[in-house]
């Protein structure tokens, strides 16, 4: 009985993913259901000053622009990656005022005055950030697509541990969080790696967290 | 995504008035749910009111010993607050069981309460869905209903409420503080905040047009042992199939609320009297009258087993 349940849900899942693939390809179908359908809305621009990796950029942006798209397409900072564009993979992780967020699920116009740091701002090929060096040393990647997001996320995550933020796997909510592999895995669960480099990613982060890097 | 005009709100009352006055206006807080839905054109606001600049990101003690949580306090900050960890651990646990570190850094208290269902047909604009297009039909009834609700539902909609945090808020009997478009203020008990679908599944909360959530107030701490046990398809970063929030007192009395089974956090105070009798008795009362689909009937024994595990731990 349990097995047939599983089979059913698997088949249904396949149907579902086919449906969502169609949806991604033809978002225009949705227009029919817009409450204000009938009149097309012209694009709206707004001025925004974005401070990215210490440089101020005065931009005129379509209000719809995600922070991710502006970083990649307007500022040519291609290190930050787009995986899912829906908050599900972590490839777009950047630091805003030192905190890690998904840059795909935030509007650029909402970040006037914020201090934004991307992978390009963490280190350079000549002067790697300790986490970048540790990822290289531990082979913390294969294709590398998720890596900038993993590294920005790890920087934010270590700061959260430092600040005493607990996690789902912390046994004692009031104690200082441990630096265990279980903690790092849970706290990094918002960063998927399609190549499955997880074991080496955890090793790289552990090295830096323990001050070995 | 449809284009929209954008403004930064200047004060809570002005934000509420603007939201009621401007056609198709929506508040945006963390944006983690609204923007996701706007990209798919499930939501198509013509105007966004950014409430992030309003000073609603504070936690303050209340004279009665409770705690007021600003509407814009981020999920990370709420879970990390020393008072929440000490006095309301069920809330900290529920928050930490949800989403990812990155998302919790953006997600706000009000946005989390008002996040919309993860029903796959609600997300898919090619499919009928009464919540998205009233009167178009419910694709889930005969479709993929495994993650959806089995109690409090109607023939029009069986969507489940996806929030973990809201389940803990319901357990704690929080109050949702708001300001309306005319500037008046009120407190909505969390038990009345989320609406059941009935014939109008598009109306999900008790909020009036334009009404802005300003804070959520927590009553004085309950003491006892706190649990938030979430069962999901993978160990992290997934929505609940079912979840059990519980506070158990030394004498065996307590409170129980469920997530993943209903269109809102599910709690029946009357069922809690059965706690000393065990998980089976409580589950029977909590889920009496449930109308599961073939695909989600497994949630009934799953609730009972999860509650049973929680009660065993509370005894131990
Ligand atoms: C990949 C992924 C996984 C997730 N997993 C989980 C999970 O496991 N558990 C869980 O509980 N959640 C999960 N979430 C959902 C997440 O918790 C919500 O997206 C988040 O809490 C919404 O908060 P926000 O501030 O970003 O809301 P927004 O997106 O800004 O707003 C959401 C809604 O609330 C309204 N709103 C916002 N603020 C106010 C206000 N002050 N007054 C009135 N209305 C307001 C907005 O108009 C909008 O309709 C997940 C999300 C993603 C993308
Ligand atoms: S369950 Fe509700 S949200 Fe899902 S398809 Fe049916 S009407 Fe839409
Ligand atoms: S691209 Fe932002 S989370 Fe996947
Ligand atoms: S290294 Fe390829 S996705 Fe992570």
From TrEMBL, chain A:
Residues 1-30 form the signal peptide. One of its GO terms (molecular function) is metal ion binding. Pfam families: Fer2, Fer2_2. It comes from the Bacteria. Residues 46-122 form the 2Fe-2S ferredoxin-type domain. Keywords: 2Fe-2S, Iron, Iron-sulfur, Metal-binding, Oxidoreductase, Signal. The keyword Signal applies. PROSITE patterns: 2FE2S_FER_1 (PS00197), 2FE2S_FER_2 (PS51085), TAT (PS51318). GO terms for cellular component: periplasmic space. PANTHER family: ALDEHYDE OXIDOREDUCTASE IRON-SULFUR-BINDING SUBUNIT PAOA, OXIDOREDUCTASE, IRON-SULPHUR BINDING SUBUNIT-RELATED-RELATED. This is Xanthine dehydrogenase YagT iron-sulfur-binding subunit. It comes from Azoarcus indigens.
UniProtKB/TrEMBL annotation, chain B:
GO terms for molecular function: FAD binding; oxidoreductase activity. Pfam families: CO_deh_flav_C, FAD_binding_5. It comes from the Bacteria. Keywords: FAD, Flavoprotein. Residues 1-223 form the FAD-binding PCMH-type domain. This is Xanthine dehydrogenase YagS FAD-binding subunit. It comes from Azoarcus indigens.
